[in-house]
Amino acid sequence: MDPSYQLLADKLHRQIDARTYLPGDRLPSVRELAKDHGFSLETVLHAFRLLENKGLVEARVRSGFYVREPRLRLIAAPTKTQTIFRAKDVAVSSLRHQTVTLGTSKHVVPLGLSLLGSEVLPVRKLAQTAASAARRYPGETSNQGPPAGIELLRQQLAQRANAWGCFLSPDDFVITCGASEALHLALRAVSQPGDIILVESPTYFGVLEIIQGLGLRVVELATDPVQGIDLGDLENALQRFNRVAACLLVTNCSNPLGYSLSTKTKHNLVRLLAKFGVPLIEDDIFGELHRPETERPKVAKSFDQDGSVILIGSFSKTLAPGLRVGWIVPGKFHDRVLELKSATSLATPSLPQLTVAEFLKFGSFDAHLRRLRKFLAEQVYRFSCAIAENFPASTRISRPSGGFLLWIELEEDFDALELAAEALNRFRIAVAPGNIFSATGERYTNCFRVSCGHAFSPRFAEAIQTVGRLAARSSAPRRMANSR
Amino acid sequence: MDPSYQLLADKLHRQIDARTYLPGDRLPSVRELAKDHGFSLETVLHAFRLLENKGLVEARVRSGFYVREPRLRLIAAPTKTQTIFRAKDVAVSSLRHQTVTLGTSKHVVPLGLSLLGSEVLPVRKLAQTAASAARRYPGETSNQGPPAGIELLRQQLAQRANAWGCFLSPDDFVITCGASEALHLALRAVSQPGDIILVESPTYFGVLEIIQGLGLRVVELATDPVQGIDLGDLENALQRFNRVAACLLVTNCSNPLGYSLSTKTKHNLVRLLAKFGVPLIEDDIFGELHRPETERPKVAKSFDQDGSVILIGSFSKTLAPGLRVGWIVPGKFHDRVLELKSATSLATPSLPQLTVAEFLKFGSFDAHLRRLRKFLAEQVYRFSCAIAENFPASTRISRPSGGFLLWIELEEDFDALELAAEALNRFRIAVAPGNIFSATGERYTNCFRVSCGHAFSPRFAEAIQTVGRLAARSSAPRRMANSR
User: Fold this and answer.
1) Chain A contact for B185, CB < 8 A?
2) What sign for the dihedral angle of Cα A31, A34, A40, A44?
3) pLDDT bracket for residue B271 (50, 70, 90)
4) Every domain of chain A and the residues it spans
5) Residue B127 is nearest to which of A126, A141, A210, comparing CB atoms?
6) Which chain B residues touch A145 with a CB distance below 8 Å?
7) pLDDT-derived band of residue A350, with 50, 70 and 90 as boundaries?
């Protein structure tokens, strides 16, 4: 039998077809539908996302779901990707490095890195908090803290973990220099060089970079742009390969595609991996940036029975990337991770940790998050519209379940690398070319990722226009050349 | 022919023997001798150190060198160590980890880690600087900075490098999370797993930990407690082993023995390594903490012709370990190091960097350093005296040329590990047992390191008494048992 979200989606679809709701009409709210028909909020949302993906409805920020004007061009979601059942070394990529380096340059339009603009970060309040933290804790600021991190911050994190579905205590956490260090520690704790890491594909390039640096290999699992990985594929991979050291996934608002695994998939995922004795490294860095109309998605860690789920997060996507404060809940790998942490960097700088701890305690972090979610949903919508308007008709765009990243897929023979290079060199616009999201750099050559972490100003409108023009121009002659 | 410092030392020795200067008399100052006889300051200092090591003279803080009372017991320097011409894997050591973890606990007397006490750090001033940096640069505090680090700080460092004998520019520097990350990046940039790193022995245990983590091997070079490594041994090792990826040394105020390589040795060292095409990783973390009566020692990097010297430093030993601000001048490995940096931790937190930059610019860092050097020299003297008083007569103590570490050598059959464990478990006193300064944990089992980074208060006097009592007690029955 179809799952209940599918049944609900079908019912709503029929209602729309039957002109129960006209184009432009607002559909009942998620809460109303859930209450009236006894569904969970998640089921209703899932149904809406299916309809959205078919182009039948659209989400409007702070408002709800509306029936779409059918005359508006339907933007397709990216195609489902394929699993490649082969363990691959990750190729060194100077492009990945270039993407990171240029991403923080003031002289380029920053569509490349997943960084938030200053206009949406609580810049002044954070500076005040940092100043008062320094004055309040002068000794802690100067002295080297414990390798696990400042206890004040670990307390705050443990309290927040309830919202993720976990019961955790301060001692479960190790504070890190951003999620990058956390990923690095997690991978080192569970693997030996040559081991295989199962990743979703496309994969955040930073993860590939770390995997390459540790001499690990990857198997790239297929993903659906809405559902994420397929557990059948995962099981298949677990059966085929015997040196699988871990499965590493962004379970909520993934990077780059933006899907979130359903609660049920998370549960089954944890069960399946436990059956094979393979740890899950769960990167929840975008978890707080779910869509404003939805609940905070749970983490797979909440289903962890034996400590084999390693949960990772950060404040870089919610508060300030400049603080470089991340964290890891290493589960049964706690001692090993702590050893590696103290051997690599002794301790995380104290002042950024104190700043975050004070902000969490006194800075109305949750109110900030609510504003941030609305802001980001709005930018994602505006960037999506601009891309739809300015790009070739065949362009496919992801509909993220949160976060602020868009995955753009052009026609198959399109060379996104060439586009990225021209955008950067001629127009100082940075986008992240798709191939850096694959292990060998050979896949997703017709895709790129666009970050919507800034307010959609005329500067960004113009940049999208420019990139759209490049996309239109370079796909036209190419097709002509092919037809010769 | 003997080197000139040897000749000068002989002359002064003869003068003392001939009662030109009586016990308690102050010898001519370093500057006077240098001026009067046309020596360099370094030559005179070297001569004084030879005399000091023979127990003929003693340095008194802020004052100069004095003829020693001959009836005072002569404390011998540690014995010269041996080179082991065998490439060794570094053993995992939970002891090293324990040393780091306990080192920052408030409940133990901190003689274990090389950390400075709050009383000597500019805690209030630094907190004020951090607060004003946060308010002055709110955007930079929140936003992710460039992987190479904040330019303001790199500028300050490049200006300071003149005093180390180097001409450097901001672009030569990459800012890191402490010297630990810098060492990690340097080693990764020059080596592949299985490669050999030439290290001085005893070696700072943090370096061994990093080497172990990267799957590298070491060859441990002999050291003299005053002169440091022997270049003959080094050449021998370079000839014998063909997978030498780098030589890693603390060239100034080494850890744990406290020697500084002479300027001439540094020059020859760089030439020798260049001949074999082997990079030098120069850890200058204690370079600013030379003895107050001496000049800032030059770095080997100042003799670098082709960029194969990688220079590393930090503000953890001079300003605040809690900031975790270190740096690396990677020379010809610049691009590789920057790539690894951005792949491992993206960027160093901004606020600690801004705090250091502002402190360097406005905080009278040099005045602070002058006070710090005097303070540390005094503590090293007071801790040394206390150890001499409270430990068995056969105890040997290093006479560091700077920094704030003492290396204590007990009789050969002594078990320092047992002593460290008892001191910790029964008396909550942390010392660093000697064996963690060797690759396999089998050497220096009769040694331990004591940190003198705190004011010698009654708490420390008592701790030294306690450890001395343990040392006396456990060596007595052991010798009796041996004589049976």
Assistant:
1) no
2) negative
3) very high
4) 1-74, 88-92+146-364
5) A141
6) 104, 322
7) very high
A206/B346 Cβ within 8 A: yes
Determine contact, residues B431/B450, Cβ cutoff 8 Å: yes
Q: Which CATH number fits domain B88-92+146-364: 3.40.640.10, 2.40.50.140, 2.60.40.1120, 3.30.70.20?
A: 3.40.640.10
What tens digit of pLDDT does each residue of A236-262 get?
Answer: 999 999 999 999 999 999 999 999 999
From chain B residues 137-166, the ones with a CB under 8 A of any chain A CB are: 137-147
Which pLDDT score, from 0 to 100, does residue B328 have?
A: 98
Q: Do B320 and A141 touch (CB under 8 A)?
A: yes
CATH of domain B1-74: 1.10.10.10
Tell me the per-residue pLDDT of A2-56, one tens digit each, with 9 for 90 and over: 788 888 999 888 888 877 887 778 888 888 888 888 888 888 988 988 888 877 8
Cβ–Cβ contact A56 with B under 8 A: no
Q: Is some CB atom of chain A closer than 8 A to the CB atom of B215?
A: yes
Nearest by Cα to A449 from A411, A394, A397: A397
Specify the pTM.
0.86
Give yes or no for residue B401 having a pLDDT over 70. Answer: yes
Q: Tell me if A130 and B126 make a contact (CB, 8 A cut-off).
A: no
Closest residue, chain A, to B321 (C-alpha): A144
Residue A107: exposure state from Cβ atoms within 10 A (0-12, 13-18, ≥19):
exposed
CA distance A177 to B145: 13
CB within 8 Å: A349 and B127: no
**Which of A141, A191, A368 to probe by mutation at the B interface, max B CB count within 10 Å?**
A141
Q: What ranges in A164-323 are assigned the alpha helix state H?
A: 178-190, 205-213, 231-240, 263-276
* Residue spans of beta strands (DSSP E) within B298-402: 309-314, 325-329, 396-397
* Residues of chain B contacting residue A99, judged by C-beta atoms under 8 Å apart: none
**A323: chain B residues, CB-CB within 8 Å:** 141-142, 349-351
- What pairs with residue B450 in β-bridges? B406
Cβ-based neighbour number of residue A63 at 10 Å: 11
* Of residues A138, A141, A161, the one with CA closest to residue A150: A141
Q: How near does any CA of chain B get to the CA of A5, in Å?
A: 40
**In residues, how long is chain A?**
484
Tens-place pLDDT, residues B191-241: 999 999 999 999 999 999 999 989 999 999 999 998 999 999 999 999 999
User: Is residue B282 within 8 Å of residue B270, measured between CB atoms?
Assistant: no
Alpha-carbon gap, residue A99 to A436, rounded angstroms: 9
Residue A42 backbone zone (phi > 0: left; psi -120 to 50: alpha; other: beta): alpha
A405-409 vs A84-89, strand pairing mode: unpaired
Q: Is A194 within 8 Å of chain B by CB?
A: no
- Which residues are CB-contacts of A191 (< 8 A; sequence separation ≥ 6)? A197, A214, A216, A245, A246
CB pairs under 8 A between A and B: 233
B103: nearest CA partner in chain A: A146
Q: How far is B90 from chain A (nearest CA, A)?
A: 13
